[in-house]
Amino acid sequence: MATVAIIGAGFAGHTAALYLGHRLGRDHHIVMISKNDYFLYLPSLVWVGVGHMPPEKVRVPLKPVYDRMHVHFVQGTAREVHPDENYVLVEKAGGGPVRVNYDYLLVATGPKLNFEGTPGLGPQHGHTLSICCLNHAIQCRDAYGQCIERMKRGERVRMVIGVGHPRSTCQGAAFEYITNVHKDLVKLGLRDRAELMWFSNEPAIGDFGVGGVYTGSGSRVRSSEDFTTSIFREFDIKWQVRKGARHVVADRVCWEDYEGNFGETEYDFAMLIPQFIGSPLKYIGRNGEDVSSKLVNQDGFVIVDGFYGLPYERLVYTPEAWPATYQNPNYRNIFAAGIAFAAPGSISVPHITRNGTNMTASAPRTGMVSGTIGRLVAKNIISLLEQGRMTHQERMTEMFSACIASMSGSLWDGSAVSITLFPTVPNFLRYRNRCGRDPFGTRIEIGLAGAWMKRMIHTTMLWKVQGNLGWRIIPE
Ligand SMILES: Cc1cc2nc3c(=O)[nH]c(=O)nc-3n(C[C@H](O)[C@H](O)[C@H](O)COP(=O)(O)OP(=O)(O)OC[C@H]3O[C@@H](n4cnc5c(N)ncnc54)[C@H](O)[C@@H]3O)c2cc1C
Fold this sequence. Notes:
This protein is of the alpha/beta class. The protein has 10 helices and 24 strands. It has a domain at about 5-110 and about 275-385: 3-Layer(bba) Sandwich (FAD/NAD(P)-binding domain), CATH 3.50.50.60. The strands form 7 sheets. Strands 1, 2, 5, 6, 7, 8, 20 and 21 form an 8-stranded mixed sheet that branches. The chain is globular and about 65 Å long. Bound molecules: flavin-adenine dinucleotide.
């Protein structure tokens, strides 16, 4: 009997746990180690942050699901991985440290929200808000409510929404938030009392960290830059792109721009997504030595089977540089999935300012991509145990993904931008067009249908993560 341990019950880890539990749970020992006792459906935090969805609707208790799926659940925070001796040290919620032994380990810890990377950023020790976890989204909702009260009293409020570090990712979530705020204020009759400003490190508006999206062909090509610009113009949202926040004080974001100039943007309310780095796990060798360099890169993301260190100009013509099996090359029984694995580089064009600041939108890994990779790793661990070899591989340069950015959750007059990408990371060797993607599989659509899709995905995903009837036929 083998033990498969997973750290992190997010999109990647929880998906893997469902597949592993379903297939192996009766004959092997599947252990999930996760900080919280619930699965958090992060995409709907946008609605929590504007007060349109109660917090209890975005989480699912894990224990009943794992009991049914034959997965042993340890609620706690993994602190140390001992890869030579195959165990994880976990600080159990409300208890002391416990040791979890493993034969295979999947690290699916998502990001550490690096508010410390931008002094003054964040709701805990800084001045800004976030919607990246449940508590933050609730705090953001309350602060937004206070802004509404101010506007009702006749005050004008400056709202800055976007990302808060020169190397941030997840611009899509911030885009959803700013457009939902706009629609909400319109409904409340207060829109003329708010100045909405989009603030981002993207090389161009509509880049979203994926190098922009181009749809159509020939003279009918339209880009996500055109779409986003027209939405922002229609919604009267101003924008500042090619800017990285250096630090934040109580009423202004102090930034550097692409050209290396410094400046400030004033705000009364700021929701800025921090930089994502890897989970601060310690990797300790047999003799107590630090073996992190064999497992993680300088940002704490787990090194897997990608080609690292290629310059961007070569990376874009090397689709096989993106990992295929997500297996660590030094410890072959350790895998990583979702945001936890180290991408070989950015998807967006990187930029270094004349002051040496790296202002590059980092490669996003969306919920769908994270779930897909979680499933792939689970299937490989299953085939390793059953057949002694891995049978699955899929690079992000071969992977389909879809993302629906809500612009208001209303099913009556709401709207959403639906984006499909094939492949997720451009493959310029295969698709010799401007965005390195298949024009048929790469689409952008805007409209009410997207709002229905977004709501439907919320419902079907919560059904799936509970392992309910038919969960395997619902796509990640
Ligand atoms: C506001 C918002 C909106 C988004 N909207 C969309 C969207 O519309 N569509 C989309 O596709 N994607 C969206 N995303 C992105 C999506 O949520 C992420 O891509 C996805 O959550 C990544 O999955 P993951 O499993 O890698 O990490 P996570 O979902 O972050 O899961 C990681 C898990 O590991 C746990 N963990 C971390 N460290 C430890 C530790 N040391 N010990 C134990 N447990 C640990 C965490 O508590 C968490 O449960 C959004 C993200 C945000 C923040």
